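Subject: Predicted fold for SalK, 293 residues

User T.R. writes:
Posting the sequence so we have a shared reference for the thread.
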Amino acid sequence: MTTTSPSPALPRRAGRTCHNAVNPLHSVLYFSPDLLRESAAIGLDSFAPAYLAFRAAPLGAVGAGVVTSTFNSFKHDLVARHVPAVWETASPAAALAARLRAVDATLRRVLGDDVVTSPEMAEAAGLALRAAEACDRTGRPLYSAHADLPVPEEPHLALWHAATLLREHRGDGHIALLLHAELSPVESVVTHSASGRGMRPEWAMRIRGWTAEDWSEAEARLRDRGLLDAAGELTPEGAELRKTLEEETDRLDHAPYEHLGAAGVERLTELASAWRDRALSGGAFPADLFGKG
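User M.O. replies:
I've generated the structure tokens; pasting them so everyone works from the same file.
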């Protein structure tokens, strides 16, 4: 992989910083009791089928192979236990409607109605949607499927929709780079966890279906490649690989933030950072979710 310097139109890593502020406003849904309440109302009574249905629904009633391929970091055995059977319980349209209801309840609860109904929320939604105008469908199936959905009218739902577009656009590009680096799905998760920036191993295994044996075998392969040491920490080579992956992901994801412009990126980052911090301080995410195990 070769690393290209970011555009001079934006400060270095401004797009990644903005993503890191906006993305939690999307992902807070998946740790919300509102997700389980709304999914149960359509017959999905546990986290795995709810998550898989809610995130895959824009793709249509696809099979397990498509979901495993596009999600990348989930074990196929877990996906196949629920997909495509999940569509017999809840159609993609029903899952999308339930998802928006859960988003509405979650954002109102973790941010408060004062934020949800504020002029700043409408401003942030407009900025994020403006950025998403420059996203590219090519080779990005999850982004492209979400881009076919209508933009919700309410600003907080429109912001969540735009955050989802930006998240999946970045994620689709990142998967291509993981393939280029010859990291398998579980190896990708292990190295991300070892970097201290991903989920802790116990959370990653629980949510994504990997077993302790899967994890241990992946660590052994990564040690053979010189990417992990005996203690499960990234070696200098492993740390450099993760650094390069993030920089290359920035390169593939530059268009939305360059399109929005430096002032817009700075303002969106400012607004989203304040709401992210409010959600974090309010316990919207498990305290032990991220960091090294």
